[in-house]
Design goal:
By secondary structure, this protein is an alpha/beta fold. The chain folds into two domains: 4-138, Endonuclease, Chain A, CATH 3.40.960; 144-255, 3-Layer(aba) Sandwich (Trna Endonuclease, Chain: A, domain 1). The chain is built from eight helices and ten strands. The longest helix has 18 residues, at 86-103.
Length: 258
């Protein structure tokens, strides 16, 4: 097992995989996240610690050297391509990640040793139960609609779909699979289930700008709204090419019968 596989970073990513129900792309590089140019003008892609496409989530595990001077890591007598020592460059690139990742519509969560069970030197004790409990508090999205969207997007990936930037900016989720295209509207838990579902059906109707038979529409709801979405008769849903999906409280996805 390599050094990185034994690291606290790898340990934290493994725990996040368990919490999120999806395996991360570790040390992932985006085309738009770049370092400073070297002497030949070349700009290397900056890696992120972990990226979960289904959750549109990036996690950075930042150990103590990211927040305070550590001569062993900073190497103050050696300049980088940015013209500063390694510690200053690390801060510069962290700030670039903090700006660019949200700007590209991804969620960034920064996890530090102090968020988990760590000693005074920032070394994790690897108390998995305590650390998972802490990550379950840190990682959830702000709303239940976000939770339902993340679970459905992750499910789409397992089914061979590729989420894409929606054609209509108001569409919640859009994905392609070979010649097929899926356009989806997502709802979370609500006290006005019937009203919100009726609004969702209306929103889908406005998205129906293509008569191509390989374009389908999806209404994705939590378990609490299943009865409300099924009030529209199956034959009507079939004519409109609307499929219904349920996301359970434990984030499992199932397609409802039409």
């Amino acid at each position: 097992m390599g050094k990185r596989d034994d690291s606290d970073e790898a340990y934290v990513i493994d725990l996040c995989n368990e919490v999120l129900g999806e395996t991360a792309l570790a040390q992932h590089k985006f085309d738009w996240l770049l370092g400073d140019p070297d002497t030949k003008g070349r700009r290397a892609k900056l890696p992120v610690d972990a990226y979960w496409p289904g959750h549109q989530l990036v996690i950075e595990y930042r150990e103590l050297q990211h927040d305070r001077p550590v001569p062993h890591f900073d190497k103050p007598d050696r300049l980088t391509v940015s013209g500063v020592h390694r510690g200053e460059q690390r801060a510069l690139y962290d700030a670039r990640r903090d700006t660019e990742i949200p700007a590209h519509r991804l969620r960034l969560v920064v996890v530090r040793p102090a968020d988990l069970d760590a000693d005074s030197r920032g070394r994790l004790r690897r108390n998995a139960d305590a650390d998972i409990a802490a990550l379950r508090r840190i990682l959830p999205r702000d709303s239940d609609e976000d939770r339902v969207t993340d679970a459905f997007r992750t499910w789409l990936l397992t089914e061979g779909w590729t989420p894409v930037t929606p054609t209509d900016r108001w569409t919640d989720i859009e994905a392609v699979r070979r010649s097929e295209r899926l356009v989806g509207e997502v709802k979370g838990r609500t006290s006005e289930k019937g009203v919100d579902v009726d609004i969702a059906y209306g929103q889908l109707l406005r998205r129906m700008t293509s008569d191509q038979p390989d374009v389908r529409y999806a209404l994705v709801v939590p378990t609490s709204s299943v009865k409300a979405v099924e009030r529209v008769p199956p034959q009507v849903r079939r004519l409109l090419r609307i499929d219904l999906y349920e996301v359970t409280d434990d984030n499992r996805v199932r397609q409802l019968a039409s």
